[in-house]
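Lay summary. Proteins are chains of building blocks that fold into shapes, and those shapes determine what they do. In this project we predict the shape from the chain. Here is one chain we studied, written as its sequence of building blocks.
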Amino acid sequence: MTTKIPELTAKAPRYLQLANLLIRDIQDGKYPIGSMLPGEVDIAAAAGVARQTAREAIRCLLDRGLIVRRPGIGTIVKSLGAPARYVQSVGDISELFQHSDFQRYARETRLVIGSRSDLRLDDSTAALIGSRTGRAWIRLDGLRYDDMSEAPLAAVEIYLPAAYSAIITQIGEEKVPVYSLLESKCGVEIQSVRQRLRAAGASSATAKTLGIRKSSPILEIQRHYVGVDGEPVEFTISRYPADRFDYSMTLERDMGPQR
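And here is the predicted shape, written in a compact code that computers can read:
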């Protein structure tokens, strides 16, 4: 069985550290080719991590071709080596906001909240957020400004469960991401962030808010923040005029762990 994760680093999330430990165990012969890999419950217990973390680590091994799932049998080790692949260089949630534009976004811009709405989620909003119909949430609408310009950088919608209303007054007052307030003030632990980017045309409301023409090209970024229990703890939509925001990312080749 794999050993407990010895030392957490700031540059790799727990599931990647566990995946690397499992790869090392496979390459060291603890799990030979053709043998069964323990299930996620056993791996999580042995490594001292959440079951979701073990599940994501196993998924990494599946993606790299080291293991294969056999219905009715289990997970079988099929390879000792992980082929080289390209991965995003953003390793964890903290790094996401320390990278290039995100560092400027968090530290050198200001968020001005214009309105608050208390919601009981209808079917469409619940589906958008990933929560359940009828649950109590709060919606904040605001504008994000670059300190170098008077024009708004983005129109922002922030959705939070009503249980976290205590941090509302601090949003925009402190130049930190909302998820940081959730963690430091509410004791929330973020397990994952799912991000979706899409090109769109500005609606009438968005165009008026941002001072652009209707149907002008915008970049829309949606982010779902999920806690360790699998429940959403924050959802945001940011809409940027095409000429006011650049998004860049570095990809690095992951050669797998070195023996």
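What the prediction tells us: The domain at 14-83 is CATH 1.10.10.10 (Arc Repressor Mutant, subunit A).
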